[in-house]
Amino acid sequence: MISRWTISLKAICYYWRTHGAVFLGMALATAVLTGALLVGDSVRHSLARIADARIRGVDVAVQGGDRFLRAQLAESMPPGVTAAPVIVVEGAAVEPESRRRANHVQVLGVDRRFWSLGNAGEVAEGWMDSSDAAVNDHLAARLAVEAGDTIVLRVRKPSGLPSDAPFASDQDLSTAIRVRVGQVVDDESFGRFSLRVNQTPPENVYLPLVSLQRALEQEARANLLLFRGASTSEVQQIVRDRWTLADAEAELIPLPDLDQAMLRSRRVFIGEALEAAAIALPHAPFPVVGYFANSLRHQDQETPYSIVAAVPFDSGSPWTALSDAPMMDDDIVINDWLARDLSVAPGDFVDLAYYVMGPMRALVETQQTFQVAAVVPIEGLSADADLMPDIPGVSDSENCSDWDPGFPLDLERIRDEDEAYWDKYRGTPKAFIRYSRGRELWENRFGSVTGFRFPMPEQPLEVLARDLAANLDPFTMGFELIPVRERALAGSREGLNFGVLFVSFSFFLIASALLLAAMLFRFCIEQRAREIGLLRAIGHTTAGVNQVFRREGLLIAAAGVLAGAPCGVLYTRLMVRGLATIWRDVVIGAPIQFHAGWPSLLSGAAAGFAVAWGVLALSGRRLARLPPAGLLRGETGLDAGGSGRRHPFPLVLAAVCTLAAVGLAAGALRGDAAGRAAAFFGVGGMLLVAGSAICFSLLSPGLGMPGPSLSRWGLVARGVRRRRGRSVATIILLACGCFIVVAVVAHRLDASVGAEQPTAGTGGFAFVAETTQPILRDLNDSEALTTYGIETNRFTETRVVPFRVREGDDASCLNLNRAQTPRLLSVDSTRLDGRFTFAATLGSDAGEDPWSALRQELPDGVVPAIADQNSILWALRKKLGDTLAYQNEQGDVMHVKLVGGLANSILQGSIVVDEQRFLEHFPSHTGYHLFLIDAGTAQRESVAEELRFAFDDAGIEVTDAAQRLAAFNTIQNTYLAMFQVLGALGVLVGSIGLGVVVFRNVLDRRREFGIQRALGYSLRRVVGMVVAEHTSLLTAGLAVGIGAAMVALLPSLLSPGETTPFRLIAWTAAGVFLNGLVWTLFAVRAASRGDFLDALREE
Amino acid sequence: MNEAAHLLTLSGVSKSYDMPGHEGQISILHDINLDVSRGNRAAVMGPSGCGKSTLLNLIGTLDRPSQGHVFMEGRDLAGLNDEELASLRNNALGFIFQHHHLLPQCTALENVLLPLLVRSRRVGDDDMQKAEALLDRVGLGGRFHHRPGQLSGGECQRVAVVRALINDPILLLADEPTGSLDGDAAKSLADLLIELNEKDGLTLIVATHATALAERMHRIYTLRDGTLHDFALDD
Q1: B68 lies in which domain range?
Q2: Does B123 touch chain A if contact means CB atoms closer than 8 Å?
Q3: Looking at residue B204, which CATH number applies to its domain?
Q4: CB–CB of A802/A951 below 8 Å?
Q5: What is the pLDDT of residues A640-676, one digit of tens each?
Q6: Per residue in A1033-1052, pLDDT tens?
Q7: CB A520 within 8 A of CB A22
Q8: CB A67 within 8 A of CB A649
Q9: Which residues of chain A make contact with B21, given a CB cutoff of 8 A?
Q10: Which of B63, B104, B121 is the closest to A4 by Cβ?
Q11: What's the number of domains chain B is made of?
Q12: Which ipTM value was assigned to this complex?
């Protein structure tokens, strides 16, 4: 059967050499395109595997952090639902003999149910029979331990009273636990468990739940519940249904002597949610506040260290009996013991002095003056010792001299009578003020009330407790409901799209392959000019002729795709190998395994086919439009001909691009370093276009050469101009490749340059310190330093900026997952004024001080935030003005709006908000975990040493800020290196293109060279002229490409201290030149086939 | 003159080309006037480079005149677009070139059938039989599946003739058809062309510098200095 398709097939077979090369070009382009998409599949699949290893069977979690609930909540689940109670705390682990240490270790107290959730049946089986710990393989490797070894853990001891709260102690915040390693568990055995959407494996220690409960004094309690087989709404209901006061860390205590029941909290101050729940009850409870007063004074008489209670004196309150007259805000009722001690009577004035806790446990003594309204005997309501809150270090002391609270106390002031009072009355308040006044003086972010008093109910207290619990929503009390599986899947699915990334990195390689194939196809068509003329002569229209070649192109593209797509698998394997070796920095902690999905394979093939066919279809269009008569004579219109007039467009284009480049450069010089590098890359790109346009113009056929035109060099120049299109295509291909490979160097980041500058990515800070345990005091305060045992004379030039940290997902370039809940930092933003450089800010409110944007008030309570611009763009895939949502302690959504982006900073990976705004949403957050430290040059090392020594137990890690930045820069530099390698491959293909052009040119002109030989030119001279022609193309390509690249590198070249890799650039240029030269010589040799004289003898 | 009465009429046709390195244009043909009646055979003679091929290209719509008009069956070809001209070439004209321009990748039969693939995607059995009959007629029966590389120059030229005839043209244009053939092959081809004209009534215009072929035409024209001169033997 004879058809259009069979004729096309025959043409392909006949011109198999050329079409074979076109096929190879198509196959290469498809292989690279498909392979790049499969890299994306592999990364996504690997991240999904890691996510699965992290969470296994866990669907939902309820996390309490510092808050603990009954482990019993995890029992008796509905059918199909499994739950496991867990204690999770952060700590440090040390191998005692070698002193190898790991900070930020996740210490988990688990039982068999946990291992069952993780499908780790083997581990679950033997778990309860031993008190040994299990460590995951990552921690085992870090500490170099194995089963049978011993490690020491130092973990934070949970306290009911937050350490930042009034009366809280900042001593003994951690406890040491010595454990024997029973087994090492790998990822398959749930060793990688973590709720954070990170790829970096956590370092985990697993203890039997009971052991950890005991060590932390949290018997029968847990701060994390894991669920399988239930949705978030189902878990929410399960937890709410089982919620009791005990889970809210509160209790109802009967006070039969007073005919009251007392509601109090382990956290001393009753939080907003519990307060609201109590008030909502119909029982009309009375709020009370008990506070520790430093002194009560009248004239020169003083009573030290007493409890003062703020109680309601309103109508209906039992305390109205304490005073005959209505109590005013400045009135005080005192007991007779105090009246005698101070020698006061009603109407006298008493000064009440007390501590108020400021930021960083800064205690401020405040004094208020009250007028004695009444003196009451110590009996009944005025003998209520339960009004004293549970003050650690005080309440459970036998004697006053044993007091050891978390605030300064001068035991010398305690007299015998005070001891006697304590012996007899314990914490019975010595004075009473109005509740509203007390609330006003003593309310803090942890609560305003230390208790509620209910009239003793007729029903059992359990009923009241149940009613109270029913009014409580655990998810407004600091417990967070986490859709674990949903977040894990979203994180891996929405992570950095490596498929698109590799396609863009490989773009030049794909373009080179396609351009090479298109050039070859075009050559083939040119070779068949007479055939085209014939087709036109027998009645094909221009479109019909184009269709003929489109059919051939279709078949070749299809064949190329069919061969290339499977080869893409090889490309993928090569790239995955690269990610595991030379480029492993970009995938830290995430071993990438090859995975090929049909969708990517098919879409890569389809895209490859579409692009390939499109390129081929466009290749020969112009020829078909030429007059058939000329085509029949073999004229293609490609030889240098025409009117001899130069078209102005190329020079106009060159001028426009040059002017634009100058303008961009001028603007860039006024900007910051990061912007300058990017802008100059654009300048270089424009000069690349300008240079190419100038080359195009210089190759104009009508352009006269200086001097006698008929000279050897004149012949060389004419030869170059003969096929202008091919010559310019070769120059552009080489120029683009060189530009990409060399100019990318400009974007390599060097953290060490200018690191001490406040505007650098380090913020000018010397160190970044992170602790596992919170640091509560201000490290800029010499008293605090002394408390921590730090020599203050070593810190005279040191400034510390502390950050509160709410742990979350890493939103830096170190995490390939998309952070779902990024780590949140809060800081007193005034301490950062003038630090760092902003890549972008939103609006003009910030003025000259971008950090003040954190303090602005936004509508609807939205919290402004600043983050590293790389984190915003790449990790979060957001932009300034976008918002993030966090669940706060009250169970509400905290909307955080990005208002500023830092340029390549050490704060990458986190979102920064103002401290005050942070505490409004997370009031119970305690202490600081991250510190930026500014140290004078002379004190640098000693500061670091002091901090490491002082906070060793707190699990401190002190890192050089420049090194921290360098770690982030390594990622970006690695991406650039990937780009360079693939760009270099593109240059290689471009060089092959040059060889093809040479081969084709020589073949076309064999007769011409034969005539030269017949006229007496030696073979060496003829070959020399050909080589000179094409070496000039090579040189032009290199000159344009590297010249433009050097302009792109100008900021680097001109910056003092910056090291431009001239050697690398020189080697690159030499390599490209030599490579091109080799291909040129090879092509000349292949095409000459003898001495050219035989071309004259061919018919 | 009435263009409709003639199959082909050229009226005031001129052709010039832009040449690189020259200002202005090079005039090849100047004010050509020509009438060819249906069924006639005519020769255009002249020395090499005088414009014979150019004239045939203008008649065959392979090129457009710089000035003047070409009428075919009374229709001015200047008003036709690319598709209409292509259709005209496919349906009404046949070309024979000095170099046969057979596609080297196709067999003799496939080369003959190429014009038919302009109109339809595949060739039917009827067309196949027609092509084989034509090839047979020119003495190439049994050589259907031989490629040009396997045929002699004369055989290739005969394949080219059959290709030009496959769509039953009304006008056959032959540009130096015997130019690359030896004596016997040239005579054989010339006989074939005359036979096509006399037996099939095919109008024939031949550009040639071979006097032996020109003498067998009804009319001979000569091209000198770009102008056409009539040298009629009989009307």
Answers
A1: 3-234
A2: yes
A3: 3.40.50.300
A4: no
A5: 444 455 678 888 999 999 999 999 888 887 765 556 7
A6: 889 999 999 899 888 888 77
A7: yes
A8: no
A9: 644
A10: B121
A11: 1
A12: 0.84
